[in-house]
Amino acid sequence: MSENSLKKCVPIEIPDDNPFQNDVLNRKDNIEILTKFITSFEQSIVLCIDGGWGQGKTTFIRMWEKYLHQQSIPTIYFNAWESDYTDDALIALIGEIGLSIENLSGKK
Questions:
Q1: Is residue 24 predicted with pLDDT exceeding 80?
Q2: Are 81 and 92 a contacting pair, CB within 8 Å?
Q3: 96 touches 83 (CB < 8 A)
Q4: What is the reported pTM?
Q5: Distance (Å, rounded) from C-alpha 18 to C-alpha 37?
Q6: For residue 60, which of 32, 34, 43, 76 sits 20 to 30 Å off, Cα-Cα?
Q7: Rounded CA gap, 7 and 68, in Å?
Q8: What is the DSSP string of 29-93?
Q9: What pLDDT is stored for residue 105 in this prediction?
Q10: How far from each other are the two terminal CA atoms of the chain, in whole angstroms?
């Protein structure tokens, strides 16, 4: 392999006990602010994280998910790209929600 060849991007390791250990973009402040924002609502809300390909959305969400777990806030992670095996994305989403509820409640 030549020195100028492209290398595959390796996902950032996000440890359970310290989600920000490898965070060179200092996402912690944003995650703490967003956590205060979403937990201030008594009703359900929808939040959209938008950005171009490769700008760190998945890493941000994974760090946030682990941070929320540390705060004892239950989460459901659904990646539509990874679940693109059906013609109806809603079926995949409902299935993931069902599995997550079982896991969170500890029973079927």
A1: yes
A2: no
A3: yes
A4: 0.78
A5: 22
A6: 43
A7: 32
A8: HHHHHHHHHHHT-SS---------TTSSHHHHHHHHHHHHHHTT-------TTTT--SS-HHHHH
A9: 74
A10: 50
